[in-house]
Amino acid sequence: MSRIYNPNKCKINRNYTISEISLLYGVHKNTPKGWLKKGLKRIDNQRPYLILGRDLRLFLKDLRTINKRPCELGEIYCMKCRAPRKPVPGSIIFETESSRYGRIKGSCNVCHSAMNRYFRIADLALLQRHFKVILPLQQKR
Ligand SMILES: [Zn+2]
Description:
The chain has about 140 residues and is an alpha+beta fold.
């Protein structure tokens, strides 16, 4: 799960498509698509999505940090602070993504940026206790 991707493999002055990233890193297209969900920035919403090499490099460096510094149970990794942060109390929403996975959304208690983190539905009760969430799990529309 925590494979290391060399951030310096991509060139900061180029744009990459999802296909180009998967070729460059020798991974399935779902891997860079998952990176977008984790916070990798894309230039805009036009398809095919284009990612700035500079953003990709920064994201892959962050990914190493995330893998090295796993969040505590009550924390979410903030892409802006580039550190695990506690969300603002009351900002937290638990949402289903599928029958097995969900997403916790909240705002960073330091920079107030939106943060999110995937979790297994099996861990829901445990995480809700650590995040002190009273709201029930919401169905994604
Ligand atoms: Zn933050």
